[in-house]
Amino acid sequence: MGMKTRLGITAFIVLSSGVAVWLMNWSSNMEDAGAQIQQPVLGNVLLESSDSQFESVTNSRQLEFPRDHGSHPEFQTEWWYFTGNLKNNEGRQFGYQFTVFRRALSRDLPELDSDWGTTQAYLAHAGVTDVQSKRYLVDEIYSRGALNLAGVRAEPFSVWVENWRADGSVGQCAGCLTLSIKAESDDFSFSFDLDSAKPAVLHGERGVSRKSTIPGNASYYYSLSRLRTSGTLTIQGENITVSGDSWMDHEWFSSVLDEGQSGWDWFSLQLDDQRELMLFQIRNHDPSVDPFKYGVVIDQRGHSELIPPEQIALTPVRTWKSNLNHSEYPVHWKIEIPRLNINLDVESLIDAQERNDSFRYWEGAIRVSGMENNRPITGLGYLEMTGY
Asked: Domains in the chain, start-ordered, CATH in brackets?
């Protein structure tokens, strides 16, 4: 009963009792569902003023699992994010993304005498990178949080939009999950099993991830930094058995960016020595203002250590120009962390990994190479770039 499309639309409307209700307030109005419309940039979407009826992230709280795997409707925006790098038996490489976004429209149910009434809208993004064929395939699906069309449950864990879903149970370590993920599109589908290899990492100050110096511009944020992954990927009718590693992020907030900030660059790196690095910087419209930076390194046992912002240098080396809107995305980066004696090159596995559906951003698979204390480092990961 929900709606699904690959048209270039930026919002969707549903009718209940003859009243038009906007289910998503993330973009501009749609005049013609079939028209070519300039998609909003994900970073710009999050610059919209948050509604004061929703809570802000101002203080740390004790994150508890499995409770906090679920939804937090007192905050306006939330997402459950899965990315991974996989191979078949012959070493053919693939990347994938599966994300469910939740957006609250109100703290109170609408005064509609209908089972369709809801305060929650859901959007799911799925994508596949086929490195060998240089194909990047994406799709999206969205629905309302009513009549079981979309929703979230903490225990047993489940997040779904129609038949796209992630379902799981509590694992053996703190915050761990054992999961299955499924998504199906005309051009691709996947069905994966994921199992946490390490406990949840709480980012920032006990899970409070600040995005600027302004109070309230923050999120509650944790990651499962390595999930062993196996399953089946189908690309245009070809069934491929794959395995590898995934990364999960869960983040919720009501306001994250201030008016001077333009977007972010986010790196999740899974090194072959079984460590992980997560780094991000939030850029400013004024290039003379230093970006807001964050970093963490996770060791083989799952212990995490914060990296001081002044010890993180992220330098673009090469850009790729979008054929869709001529934006230029850095697809080769130098990463320097002097405190750890780490110097890395991070490059896209293919350059054209830009999403251009309900909102526009670059989300793609990357390779990692470099040195640490004169020893070589290799790995794979994912890079997200917004605001370009």
From this structure: 3-385 (2.40.370.10)
Q: Is the pLDDT of residue 268 over 90?
A: yes
What distances in angstroms separate CA 204 from CA 59, 208, 218, 341, 351, one per listed residue? 11, 5, 10, 22, 31
Phi, psi of 67 (to 5 degrees): -50, -50
pLDDT of the residue at 383 = 98
Report how far Cα 29 is from the mean position of its chain's Cα atoms: 24
- Contact criterion met (CB below 8 Å) for 240 and 63: no
Please, are residues 324 and 361 in contact by the beta-carbon 8 Å criterion?
Answer: no
pLDDT of residue 358: 87
> What does the alpha-carbon distance between residue 8 and residue 217 come to, in Å, rounded to a whole number?
30
> What pLDDT is recorded for position 48?
53
pLDDT at 202 over 90: yes
Measuring CA to CA, which residue among 215, 206, 204 is closest to residue 60? Answer: 206
**pLDDT tens-place string over residues 110-160:** 666 778 888 899 999 999 999 999 999 999 999 999 899 999 999 999 999
Q: What average pLDDT does the segment 296-321 reach?
A: 97
Torsion angle (degrees, nearest 10) of CA 108, 111, 114, 118: -20
User: How many C-beta atoms lie closer than 10 Å to residue 335's C-beta?
Assistant: 20
Predicted confidence (pLDDT) at residue 30 exceeds the cutoff of 80 = no
Comparing CA positions, the residue from 267, 269, 305, 292 lying closest to residue 210 is 292
**Residue 283 to residue 291: CA distance in whole angstroms:** 5
